[in-house]
Amino acid sequence: MSSFPNLSAPAAGSTRQARITAITSGKGGVGKTFSSANLAAALARQGLRVLVLDADLGLANLDVVLNLFPKITLHDVFTGKHSLEDAVMPAPGGFSVLLAGSGMVEYSRLTPDVREKLLDVIRQMRPHFDRILLDTGAGISDVVLYTVSLADEVLIVSTPEPTSLTDAYATIKVLATSHGRRDLRLLINQVNRPGEGRTIRGQLQQVVDRYVTPGLDAPVKLEFLGEIPSDPAVRDAVARRQLLLECFPGSPAAQAMVAAATRLSA
């Protein structure tokens, strides 16, 4: 069942176009997909119509995070077996999802066919939602960078771990120098003490100011969206395959996620 009616026809009298946020990371294992799902739930609680599109076409795992078992995925849409409307699923937390399905190896490379089909999906989705979150793959592959190019804004998820920060910097550099991004948002996950995320943002900004901004037409600005504390509730939610906001809404990490979503929607 589709989570909204009549996708094939535009809403009468509506000129709404969803704001698109690409949520990406320099490396895997930083909680990007978990963050995407919980941010979507927090945005939905604000009364927004939210879609999360699993754009990690080669190693999709949004279905695992949400404990969903899709019968129809983007693969079926791309191959013409099913309509896009049939592939949209309601998710726990009051938002909608478009799931890619795991192991779509044929879509892990950016071919002209993948470009066209991904762009077409997003074009069809925009009039029906207020916010679309693109849960991209990790790293700076052609598929990831193309997906990010389709977004109005970019949120980079990192942890305080040195290799995560190094890869986050590499992502920022590529997005700024090769893709013209000058404003990027930053969410620091798994922080160990209050204020650590803001400190990391400041350190990254200094490095960007010194090594990336010179020679560009405008400075690259990193906006601090928030920090998510290390919290046993997160591990429990992941193990249960449930949204943190649903099973542990009062936990520090859940409250931090809500605060980040509030800033994201501002």
Automatic annotation (TrEMBL):
CDD domains: FlhG-like. Keywords: ATP-binding, Nucleotide-binding. GO terms for biological process: negative regulation of cell division. The keyword Ligase does not apply. GO terms for molecular function: ATP binding; ATP hydrolysis activity. It comes from the Bacteria. GO terms for cellular component: cytoplasmic side of plasma membrane; cytosol. Pfam families: CbiA. InterPro entries: CobQ/CobB/MinD/ParA_Nub-bd_dom, FlhG, MinD_FleN, P-loop_NTPase, ParA/MinD_ATPase. Residues 22-242 form the CobQ/CobB/MinD/ParA nucleotide binding domain. PANTHER family: CELLULOSE BIOSYNTHESIS PROTEIN BCSQ-RELATED, SEPTUM SITE-DETERMINING PROTEIN MIND HOMOLOG, CHLOROPLASTIC-RELATED. This is MinD/ParA family protein. It comes from Ideonella dechloratans.
